[in-house]
Amino acid sequence: MTDLAPGLKTAGARVAAGGVPPAHVAPARAARPLPPGLPEILLLVGDKLAQVEQECRRHLRSEVGVIDELGRYIADGGGKRVRPILLLLSSQLCGYKGDRDVMFASVFEFIHTATLVHDDVIDEAELRRGRGSLNARWGNGLTVLLGDYLYIKSMNMALAAGDLEIIKILAEITLKMIEGELIADRRRSDIDVTEEEHLEIIRRKTACLFAGCGRVAGVLAQVPPGKVQALSDYGMNLGMAFQIVDDLLDFTAMESVLGKPVASDLREGKLTLPLIYLLQKNDPRERAMVRTVLEERDFRTVSREEIIDLLRRGRTLEKTRDLATAYARRAQAALKPFAPCAARDALMALPDFVLFREY
Predict the structure, then answer these.
(1) Is 234 a member of any domain?
(2) 234, 347 in Cβ contact below 8 A?
(3) Is residue 1 assigned to a domain?
(4) Dist CA 275 CA 293 (whole Å)
(5) In what helix (H) or strand (E) does residue 128 lie, and over which residues does it extend?
(6) Which of 28, 168, 187, 348 could form a disulfide with 10 if both were Cys (CB 3.0 to 4.6 A apart)?
């Protein structure tokens, strides 16, 4: 699947004694320092996270050869698995004792993967996690069909559980994500996109899926509505922080770590928060430089380094990180209704993992 990254895979291997069998942890490309609290998080959900891996791989197998081939490529691609971890920890926090959390964690990973597959087609991306994207290797037509397949597969998996309330949640989330992608596509290369508009796109495209992980966990555990809402609020704010950090890393991470060229978002016509904050200053020269990149869809006339230098001198990278931190703290505050326990401690640590990740 595509979102336990190499560092998290390595972490999983290191805490295998806590329940993640090495056989279920894909080989790491390079060891990286573990973010704060990550080993403890993996110890809590290690067994079930390994089951999620097995479930995802099982559902990616097909007697249709091309689906099986693309499914193996996806399964070997790695990913941070933040969404399954969020659902598993939230279920544990609510005292859930069954095994349907594993299945629904897999469903959320399938939905997420479907969106990545479609996003790469829309963005004409050539790389994903340091490897060739599906569309670059197999073409847009086949890739779009695979994304559709993954969406329908996720719903079939959910239907097997027969929980109408959760199916409604999943359908609502999927609609919001598609709406977010449509809005984002309409604002592509629009130099006047506002902070509020961009945050609304993040809310729909990314954060609502995180919120759904918390909501589904609460519904599974049959906790009171107030606690279901608290978990949803936690996920929504965590998702906002996660994507805002992604916006930041697009300009600050090394290409070898990021797995794609630096400033890819701008090259693809997407204005994210660091640039939106820069453009708010209405400096004619800076606006002209950004507009040139948007029009050329490349860094021929204006280099990546020149754009990044503008952001550094304008201190918009710091402003972006401050906003991500604010959302992370809101996520932690949303956990107040829950009594202290190991799962709550892990959920309190997860926003810091999101803030301080390097990829």
Answers:
(1) yes
(2) yes
(3) no
(4) 12
(5) strand 127-128
(6) 28
